[in-house]
């Protein structure tokens, strides 16, 4: 997994967790959903990079 992509995926996951927690704290369902979506995007990016790494070997 390239370092740049790893940082992006971890950043998206962390940002998503913060958004989700903030949305829950204030009762904002839209913000909570955005946070979950951002986490999923980070997870997908991470999975894609792991597959690319596996295929290189």
Overview of the structural elements:
With 57 residues, this protein is an all-alpha fold. The chain is 91% helix and 0% strand. The model has no long low-confidence stretch (mean pLDDT 92).
Low-confidence stretches: none
Q: What shape does the CA trace take?
A: elongated
- The helix-and-strand class reads mainly alpha
N-to-C series of helices and strands: HH
Summarize model confidence as the mean pLDDT.
92
Strand content: under 5%
Based on CA atoms alone, the radius of gyration comes out at: 13 Å
Please summarize the sheet with the most strands. none
Number of helices: 2
Number of strands: 0
Distance between the termini: 12 Å
Helix content: over 70%
What's a quick, concise take on this entry?
By secondary structure, the chain is an all-alpha fold. It is 91% helix and 0% strand. The longest helix has 28 residues, at 29-56.
What is the fold's blueprint, element by element?
Blueprint: H1 3-26, H2 29-56
Helix pairs in contact: 1-2
């Amino acid at each position: 997994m390239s370092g740049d992509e790893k940082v992006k995926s971890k950043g998206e996951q962390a940002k998503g967790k913060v958004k989700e927690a903030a949305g829950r704290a204030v009762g904002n369902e839209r913000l909570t959903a955005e946070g979950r979506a951002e986490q999923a995007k980070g997870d997908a990016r991470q999975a894609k990079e792991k597959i690319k790494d596996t295929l290189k070997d």
